[in-house]
Amino acid sequence: MGLDKKPTLYDYWTRHPVLHSSFAPKVMVREHLLSILAFLHINDNATFVPHGQPDHDPIQKIRPFVDHLNAKFKEVYQPQREVCIDEAMIPFKGRFRFKVYMKDKPTK
């Protein structure tokens, strides 16, 4: 949630002196945020395809939102000359469920 990264969502509302965050409790009560997250649906769950099935989309629940953002980014941003970002240049230690192994990639 922004610049102040906590291990869990509940840690933003903790009163523990080490993990205490003054911003989140002032903005919203934890239960209100959890209610919003529970009931906010961007895609229809009836069209959900389970893991291992053909046509499974790992980001199916947010696909309409991602498609909308991509369309807006393409509409607004016009790249200039000499813009090139290679994924091998950006260090990343996280995990993606939909990551594809590329044997010819220089760094693995």
From TrEMBL:
One Pfam entry name: DDE_Tnp_1_7
The organism's place on the tree of life at top rank: Eukaryota
PiggyBac transposable element-derived protein domain ranges (all copies): 1-108
Protein name: PiggyBac transposable element-derived protein domain-containing protein
Organism of this sequence: Plakobranchus ocellatus
Lineage: Eukaryota, Metazoa, Spiralia, Lophotrochozoa, Mollusca
